[in-house]
TrEMBL record:
Membrane topology listed for this record: Single-pass type I membrane protein
Domain of life the protein comes from: Eukaryota
Compartments it resides in: Membrane
Gene: Dcbld1_0
Disulfide bond as UniProt keyword: yes
MF annotations from Gene Ontology: signaling receptor activity
GO cellular component: plasma membrane
Residue ranges annotated for the CUB domain, each copy included: 7-120
Organism of this sequence: Rhabdornis inornatus
Protein name: DCBD1 protein
Disulfide bonds: 7-34
LCCL domain: residues covered: 144-220
């Protein structure tokens, strides 16, 4: 939990999380405070990674301070500010509960703080890297644990899931964009550092827009367990649009025209249809890890801006997709124009024959 008027972007889960001061990385406000209570599962301990601690210097950190305490043992870490920074980027505690307290009085400068944490079950955060192999020798493969809450932290990413990412990209933010972890959960990712390419193309995926980037010496490639295109046996829909042009010519926007590679017009529901749906029959039960959507075509500027997903094993009983939070039906962010492709990952995957 967090409380106070000085809290910035915060996402806390039992296993990992990310927190920052208000306005980070802009100057934090005067006369604010925030108190975060971090709670790990019983039997585990918390590891905290200091991404950035930039608080105006003062004697005994009196003007602005970051103080971490273990309420059970009374152990304190800090206070920290610019003339008294943490001695290491990783703080290993022996406690499952830590209180993080940030305070400011009148000051002139400072970005504030960015901090992430994980539990002793997941010791590596995105500030440490555990090398797995290097085969072939030019490729460096490693595994990192990304905490929850990386999607909205400050920093840029360049590239996309198919090409890879410029190595200056914020690594865990790129992992959310690539669809290998869900932002609300975090998780372990495996990736390789390979030879860079001349140009990285921008893409919109999993609620994030990457930038177009220039040549880099190295690039990051995320490893996915499954990345094959599934064959759709039959397309079905709630309705389809039978368009009659001004000169009386017919155009049928039927369900089977929904396949991504179809040239010309796509599927469209009957104009004015409420709660339209498109249904895919995969022929047999499959493991579905994501979806790519695109608008109708450049001549017809139609596209879907958001959608829900449900699945069925028998075509009769439907289960709404709730995502990794498991609480409410997930709304996927769709397209913003009729040309670009938008990817959304299913974390966890859907196991079903029918998808709507």
């Amino acid at each position: 939990v967090s409380a106070g008027n000085g809290c910035g972007h915060t996402l806390l889960t039992p296993h990992s999380g990310t927190l920052s001061s208000k306005n980070y990385p802009g100057t934090y406000p005067n006369h604010t405070m925030c108190c975060w209570q971090l709670q790990a599962p019983p039997g585990t301990s918390l590891l905290l990674a200091f991404g950035d601690v930039d608080l105006e210097p003062s004697e005994h950190c009196a003007l602005s301070s970051l103080l971490l305490t273990d309420p059970h043992t009374g152990t304190a870490y800090g206070p920290y500010c610019r003339n008294s920074n943490p001695s290491a980027t990783l703080l290993v505690t022996n406690s499952s509960t830590v209180t993080v307290l940030f305070n400011s009085t009148s000051h002139h400068s400072g970005r504030g703080l960015l901090l992430s944490y994980a539990t002793s079950q997941h010791p590596g955060t995105h500030y440490t890297q555990e090398y797995v192999s290097s085969d072939p020798p030019l490729t460096m493969c490693f595994s990192v644990y990304c905490p929850a809450g990386c999607k909205d932290i400050h920093g840029d990413i360049w590239g996309n899931p198919s090409q890879g990412y410029r190595d200056t990209s914020v690594l865990c933010k790129a992992a959310v964009h690539a669809g290998v972890i869900a932002d609300e959960l975090g998780g372990q990712v495996t990736l390789s550092r390979e030879k860079g390419i001349t140009l990285y193309e921008s893409a919109f995926a999993n609620g994030l827009r990457s930038k177009r980037g220039s040549l880099s010496e190295k690039r990051l490639i995320f490893h996915k367990a499954c990345d094959d295109v599934l064959e759709v046996v039959t397309f079905n829909a709630s309705s389809w649009w039978h368009e009659v042009g001004v000169l009386g010519q017919d155009r049928a926007w039927m369900a089977e025209r929904a396949a991504l590679s179809t040239t010309g017009h796509s599927w469209a529901a009957e104009p004015g249809a409420e709660a339209a749906w498109l249904e895919l029959d995969l022929g047999t039960r499959r493991n579905v890890t994501g979806i790519i959507t695109k608008g109708s075509s450049e001549q017809h500027d139609y596209y879907v801006t958001s959608y829900h997903v449900s699945s069925s094993r028998d075509g009769k009983n439907w289960r709404p997709y709730r995502g990794s939070s498991g609480q409410e039906e997930k709304v996927f962010e769709g397209n913003a124009d009729s040309q670009g492709e938008v990817s959304n990952a299913f974390i966890p995957p859907i196991i079903a024959r029918y998808v709507r």
